[in-house]
Task: structure prediction
Amino acid sequence: MKVAFLIHSLEAPSCRYRVLQYLPYLRQRGMDISIHLFKRHLLDKLKFYNSLAQYDIIMIQRKLFSPVDFWYIRQRAKRIVYDFDDAVMYRSPRSKNPYSFSRKVRFAFMMRRVDGVIAGNQFLKLEVLPFNSKVVVLPTSIDLSQYTLKKDYDHLRPTTIGWFGSKSSLGFLRNLIPSIENTFKKHSNIQLKVVCSEFPDSQTIPIIKKKWSLAEEVEDIQSFDIGVMPLSDDLWSKGKCGLKILQYNSVGIPAVCTPVGINRELIQDGLNGFWAQNEVQWEDRLSKLIAEKERRKQMGLEGRKIVEKYYSLEVTAPRLFSTLTEAVKKI
Result:
Protein backbone atom coordinates (compact mmCIF):
# COMPACT_ATOMS: atom_id res chain seq x y z
CA MET A 1 0.00 0.00 0.00
CA LYS A 2 1.45 3.34 -1.08
CA VAL A 3 0.80 6.27 1.24
CA ALA A 4 1.77 9.91 0.74
CA PHE A 5 1.85 12.25 3.75
CA LEU A 6 1.48 15.97 3.03
CA ILE A 7 3.00 18.08 5.82
CA HIS A 8 4.12 21.66 6.51
CA SER A 9 7.69 20.97 7.63
CA LEU A 10 9.95 18.37 9.18
CA GLU A 11 10.27 20.34 12.43
CA ALA A 12 6.72 21.53 13.16
CA PRO A 13 5.44 19.75 16.30
CA SER A 14 2.18 18.68 14.66
CA CYS A 15 4.12 17.04 11.82
CA ARG A 16 6.66 15.36 14.11
CA TYR A 17 4.15 14.03 16.62
CA ARG A 18 1.24 13.19 14.32
CA VAL A 19 3.12 11.92 11.26
CA LEU A 20 6.89 11.49 11.36
CA GLN A 21 7.17 9.45 14.56
CA TYR A 22 4.74 6.88 13.11
CA LEU A 23 6.76 6.15 9.96
CA PRO A 24 8.96 3.32 11.32
CA TYR A 25 5.89 1.47 12.63
CA LEU A 26 3.94 1.91 9.38
CA ARG A 27 6.89 0.83 7.23
CA GLN A 28 7.46 -2.25 9.37
CA ARG A 29 3.92 -3.26 8.50
CA GLY A 30 4.48 -3.02 4.79
CA MET A 31 3.38 0.48 3.92
CA ASP A 32 5.33 2.25 1.19
CA ILE A 33 5.61 5.74 2.68
CA SER A 34 6.63 9.04 1.12
CA ILE A 35 6.72 12.49 2.72
CA HIS A 36 5.91 15.66 0.79
CA LEU A 37 5.98 19.30 1.84
CA PHE A 38 3.19 21.58 0.65
CA LYS A 39 4.08 23.38 -2.58
CA ARG A 40 3.95 27.15 -2.94
CA HIS A 41 4.37 27.76 -6.66
CA LEU A 42 1.70 26.91 -9.22
CA LEU A 43 3.85 24.73 -11.47
CA ASP A 44 5.17 22.76 -8.49
CA LYS A 45 1.62 22.28 -7.25
CA LEU A 46 0.35 21.03 -10.59
CA LYS A 47 3.27 18.63 -10.99
CA PHE A 48 2.65 17.17 -7.55
CA TYR A 49 -1.15 17.03 -7.85
CA ASN A 50 -0.83 15.19 -11.16
CA SER A 51 1.28 12.50 -9.44
CA LEU A 52 -1.29 11.66 -6.76
CA ALA A 53 -2.95 8.84 -8.67
CA GLN A 54 0.06 6.58 -7.97
CA TYR A 55 -0.80 6.49 -4.24
CA ASP A 56 -3.45 4.34 -2.62
CA ILE A 57 -4.08 7.05 -0.07
CA ILE A 58 -2.83 10.52 0.81
CA MET A 59 -2.99 11.98 4.30
CA ILE A 60 -3.14 15.76 4.56
CA GLN A 61 -1.86 17.10 7.87
CA ARG A 62 -3.64 20.23 9.08
CA LYS A 63 -3.58 22.39 5.93
CA LEU A 64 -6.80 23.89 4.59
CA PHE A 65 -6.60 24.10 0.81
CA SER A 66 -8.58 26.58 -1.26
CA PRO A 67 -11.67 24.98 -2.88
CA VAL A 68 -10.02 25.21 -6.29
CA ASP A 69 -6.83 23.47 -5.14
CA PHE A 70 -8.69 20.80 -3.25
CA TRP A 71 -11.09 20.12 -6.12
CA TYR A 72 -8.04 19.47 -8.31
CA ILE A 73 -6.51 17.18 -5.66
CA ARG A 74 -9.80 15.32 -5.20
CA GLN A 75 -10.02 14.53 -8.93
CA ARG A 76 -6.63 12.80 -8.87
CA ALA A 77 -6.35 11.15 -5.46
CA LYS A 78 -7.86 7.71 -4.87
CA ARG A 79 -8.40 8.18 -1.15
CA ILE A 80 -7.82 11.18 1.12
CA VAL A 81 -7.58 11.26 4.92
CA TYR A 82 -7.33 14.58 6.74
CA ASP A 83 -5.53 14.85 10.12
CA PHE A 84 -5.58 17.91 12.37
CA ASP A 85 -4.78 18.88 15.95
CA ASP A 86 -5.76 22.56 16.04
CA ALA A 87 -8.99 24.52 15.58
CA VAL A 88 -8.00 25.50 12.04
CA MET A 89 -11.55 26.62 11.26
CA TYR A 90 -11.19 29.51 13.75
CA ARG A 91 -8.75 32.35 14.24
CA SER A 92 -6.26 32.36 17.11
CA PRO A 93 -6.88 34.44 20.29
CA ARG A 94 -4.65 37.17 18.88
CA SER A 95 -7.58 38.10 16.61
CA LYS A 96 -10.50 40.11 17.97
CA ASN A 97 -13.03 37.90 16.19
CA PRO A 98 -12.46 34.11 16.25
CA TYR A 99 -14.83 33.50 13.35
CA SER A 100 -13.44 33.44 9.84
CA PHE A 101 -15.76 33.01 6.87
CA SER A 102 -12.94 31.94 4.52
CA ARG A 103 -11.57 29.35 6.97
CA LYS A 104 -15.02 27.91 7.59
CA VAL A 105 -15.70 27.64 3.85
CA ARG A 106 -12.41 25.86 3.18
CA PHE A 107 -12.90 23.55 6.15
CA ALA A 108 -16.46 22.60 5.18
CA PHE A 109 -15.51 22.12 1.52
CA MET A 110 -12.70 19.71 2.41
CA MET A 111 -14.52 17.81 5.16
CA ARG A 112 -17.41 17.00 2.81
CA ARG A 113 -15.03 15.53 0.25
CA VAL A 114 -12.40 13.57 2.20
CA ASP A 115 -12.74 9.83 2.80
CA GLY A 116 -11.91 10.03 6.49
CA VAL A 117 -10.82 12.45 9.20
CA ILE A 118 -8.47 11.96 12.16
CA ALA A 119 -9.15 14.53 14.87
CA GLY A 120 -6.81 15.20 17.78
CA ASN A 121 -9.61 15.56 20.34
CA GLN A 122 -13.37 15.35 20.85
CA PHE A 123 -13.97 19.07 20.27
CA LEU A 124 -12.38 18.84 16.81
CA LYS A 125 -14.41 15.73 16.02
CA LEU A 126 -17.62 17.61 16.79
CA GLU A 127 -16.54 20.34 14.37
CA VAL A 128 -16.24 17.73 11.60
CA LEU A 129 -19.46 15.79 12.18
CA PRO A 130 -21.85 18.27 10.49
CA PHE A 131 -19.95 17.64 7.26
CA ASN A 132 -18.59 14.08 7.52
CA SER A 133 -19.45 11.15 9.79
CA LYS A 134 -16.24 9.26 9.02
CA VAL A 135 -14.13 10.81 11.80
CA VAL A 136 -12.10 9.18 14.56
CA VAL A 137 -10.29 10.70 17.52
CA LEU A 138 -6.59 9.90 17.70
CA PRO A 139 -4.84 11.88 20.44
CA THR A 140 -1.36 13.25 20.01
CA SER A 141 1.05 10.69 21.45
CA ILE A 142 4.60 10.36 22.74
CA ASP A 143 7.37 7.98 21.76
CA LEU A 144 8.41 7.09 25.29
CA SER A 145 11.67 5.56 24.09
CA GLN A 146 12.75 9.16 23.43
CA TYR A 147 11.42 10.52 26.73
CA THR A 148 13.26 9.13 29.71
CA LEU A 149 12.33 10.04 33.26
CA LYS A 150 13.82 13.09 34.94
CA LYS A 151 16.75 12.09 37.18
CA ASP A 152 17.87 15.40 38.69
CA TYR A 153 15.81 16.09 41.80
CA ASP A 154 18.37 18.37 43.47
CA HIS A 155 16.30 20.18 46.10
CA LEU A 156 19.11 22.64 46.88
CA ARG A 157 18.94 24.45 43.58
CA PRO A 158 16.05 26.77 42.67
CA THR A 159 12.76 25.11 41.72
CA THR A 160 12.28 25.57 37.99
CA ILE A 161 8.85 26.39 36.61
CA GLY A 162 9.06 25.58 32.91
CA TRP A 163 7.21 26.43 29.71
CA PHE A 164 8.10 25.79 26.10
CA GLY A 165 6.35 26.40 22.83
CA SER A 166 6.15 28.61 19.79
CA LYS A 167 5.99 32.40 19.86
CA SER A 168 2.36 32.19 18.70
CA SER A 169 1.46 30.75 22.14
CA LEU A 170 3.70 33.05 24.15
CA GLY A 171 0.79 35.36 24.98
CA PHE A 172 -0.67 32.70 27.27
CA LEU A 173 2.56 32.62 29.28
CA ARG A 174 2.81 36.41 29.42
CA ASN A 175 -0.66 36.47 31.00
CA LEU A 176 0.65 34.09 33.67
CA ILE A 177 3.71 36.16 34.62
CA PRO A 178 1.89 38.20 37.35
CA SER A 179 0.85 34.97 39.10
CA ILE A 180 4.41 33.65 38.99
CA GLU A 181 5.70 37.00 40.31
CA ASN A 182 3.28 36.79 43.24
CA THR A 183 4.38 33.20 43.87
CA PHE A 184 7.99 34.42 43.93
CA LYS A 185 7.13 36.73 46.83
CA LYS A 186 6.29 33.63 48.90
CA HIS A 187 8.93 31.28 47.48
CA SER A 188 12.04 33.22 46.48
CA ASN A 189 14.01 30.07 45.57
CA ILE A 190 12.30 29.62 42.19
CA GLN A 191 13.04 30.51 38.60
CA LEU A 192 11.17 30.45 35.30
CA LYS A 193 12.65 28.70 32.28
CA VAL A 194 11.21 29.51 28.86
CA VAL A 195 12.15 27.50 25.78
CA CYS A 196 11.05 29.41 22.69
CA SER A 197 12.27 31.72 19.93
CA GLU A 198 11.05 34.78 21.85
CA PHE A 199 10.78 35.45 25.56
CA PRO A 200 8.75 37.34 28.18
CA ASP A 201 10.36 39.77 30.63
CA SER A 202 9.94 40.33 34.35
CA GLN A 203 11.44 42.81 36.78
CA THR A 204 10.89 40.39 39.66
CA ILE A 205 11.59 36.75 38.81
CA PRO A 206 14.75 35.30 37.24
CA ILE A 207 14.00 33.96 33.77
CA ILE A 208 16.22 31.46 31.95
CA LYS A 209 15.77 32.15 28.23
CA LYS A 210 16.64 29.15 26.08
CA LYS A 211 16.33 28.96 22.30
CA TRP A 212 14.42 25.88 21.22
CA SER A 213 16.49 23.09 19.71
CA LEU A 214 15.18 19.75 18.49
CA ALA A 215 18.30 17.99 19.72
CA GLU A 216 17.88 19.43 23.23
CA GLU A 217 14.08 19.40 23.51
CA VAL A 218 13.79 16.45 25.91
CA GLU A 219 16.77 17.60 27.98
CA ASP A 220 15.18 21.03 28.38
CA ILE A 221 11.89 19.51 29.58
CA GLN A 222 13.79 17.31 32.04
CA SER A 223 15.35 20.46 33.51
CA PHE A 224 11.89 21.64 34.64
CA ASP A 225 10.47 20.77 38.05
CA ILE A 226 6.95 21.97 37.27
CA GLY A 227 5.47 22.40 33.80
CA VAL A 228 2.78 24.98 33.04
CA MET A 229 0.22 25.17 30.24
CA PRO A 230 -1.90 28.31 30.58
CA LEU A 231 -4.62 28.90 27.98
CA SER A 232 -7.58 31.19 27.45
CA ASP A 233 -11.11 29.78 27.38
CA ASP A 234 -11.90 30.20 23.70
CA LEU A 235 -12.62 28.18 20.57
CA TRP A 236 -8.97 28.07 19.49
CA SER A 237 -7.79 26.74 22.84
CA LYS A 238 -10.49 24.07 22.87
CA GLY A 239 -8.89 22.64 19.75
CA LYS A 240 -5.48 22.25 21.42
CA CYS A 241 -4.29 18.68 21.95
CA GLY A 242 -2.14 19.13 25.05
CA LEU A 243 1.28 18.21 23.71
CA LYS A 244 3.03 20.27 26.42
CA ILE A 245 1.27 18.34 29.19
CA LEU A 246 2.10 15.00 27.59
CA GLN A 247 5.75 15.95 27.31
CA TYR A 248 5.90 17.19 30.91
CA ASN A 249 4.30 14.01 32.24
CA SER A 250 6.41 11.78 29.99
CA VAL A 251 9.59 12.81 31.79
CA GLY A 252 7.93 12.56 35.19
CA ILE A 253 7.09 16.15 36.08
CA PRO A 254 3.62 17.42 37.08
CA ALA A 255 1.78 20.12 35.18
CA VAL A 256 -0.42 23.01 36.19
CA CYS A 257 -2.84 23.92 33.42
CA THR A 258 -5.94 25.85 32.51
CA PRO A 259 -8.74 23.24 32.42
CA VAL A 260 -9.85 24.01 28.87
CA GLY A 261 -10.51 21.39 26.20
CA ILE A 262 -8.38 18.28 26.35
CA ASN A 263 -6.40 19.65 29.31
CA ARG A 264 -9.29 18.49 31.49
CA GLU A 265 -8.71 14.94 30.28
CA LEU A 266 -4.92 14.90 30.37
CA ILE A 267 -4.61 16.31 33.90
CA GLN A 268 -6.57 14.54 36.62
CA ASP A 269 -6.70 17.35 39.15
CA GLY A 270 -4.55 16.42 42.14
CA LEU A 271 -3.16 13.21 40.60
CA ASN A 272 -0.68 14.13 37.86
CA GLY A 273 -1.01 17.90 38.15
CA PHE A 274 -3.45 20.66 39.00
CA TRP A 275 -6.09 22.77 37.31
CA ALA A 276 -5.90 26.55 37.75
CA GLN A 277 -8.51 28.96 36.42
CA ASN A 278 -7.54 32.31 37.94
CA GLU A 279 -4.59 34.10 39.55
CA VAL A 280 -5.42 32.89 43.06
CA GLN A 281 -5.57 29.27 41.92
CA TRP A 282 -2.36 29.53 39.90
CA GLU A 283 -0.50 30.91 42.91
CA ASP A 284 -1.97 28.27 45.21
CA ARG A 285 -1.22 25.30 42.92
CA LEU A 286 2.28 26.44 42.10
CA SER A 287 2.99 27.06 45.78
CA LYS A 288 1.85 23.56 46.70
CA LEU A 289 4.17 21.94 44.17
CA ILE A 290 7.08 24.18 45.15
CA ALA A 291 6.68 23.36 48.85
CA GLU A 292 5.84 19.65 48.59
CA LYS A 293 8.82 18.21 46.76
CA GLU A 294 8.01 14.52 47.24
CA ARG A 295 4.42 15.05 46.16
CA ARG A 296 5.73 16.80 43.08
CA LYS A 297 7.80 13.75 42.20
CA GLN A 298 4.96 11.30 42.80
CA MET A 299 2.54 13.33 40.70
CA GLY A 300 5.05 13.35 37.87
CA LEU A 301 5.37 9.56 38.04
CA GLU A 302 1.57 9.22 37.95
CA GLY A 303 1.61 11.35 34.82
CA ARG A 304 4.10 9.01 33.20
CA LYS A 305 1.77 6.07 33.92
CA ILE A 306 -1.14 7.88 32.25
CA VAL A 307 0.92 8.57 29.15
CA GLU A 308 2.05 4.94 29.01
CA LYS A 309 -1.54 3.70 29.22
CA TYR A 310 -3.36 6.10 26.90
CA TYR A 311 -1.03 8.44 25.00
CA SER A 312 2.06 6.46 24.02
CA LEU A 313 3.11 5.69 20.47
CA GLU A 314 2.77 2.01 21.33
CA VAL A 315 -0.96 2.56 21.92
CA THR A 316 -1.80 4.93 19.06
CA ALA A 317 0.36 3.57 16.21
CA PRO A 318 -1.82 0.46 15.65
CA ARG A 319 -4.87 2.71 15.57
CA LEU A 320 -3.39 4.93 12.85
CA PHE A 321 -2.39 1.86 10.84
CA SER A 322 -5.93 0.49 11.14
CA THR A 323 -7.52 3.82 10.14
CA LEU A 324 -5.41 4.10 6.98
CA THR A 325 -5.89 0.45 6.08
CA GLU A 326 -9.66 0.64 6.45
CA ALA A 327 -9.80 3.74 4.27
CA VAL A 328 -7.95 1.95 1.49
CA LYS A 329 -10.16 -1.16 1.75
CA LYS A 330 -13.13 1.01 0.79
CA ILE A 331 -11.68 1.70 -2.65
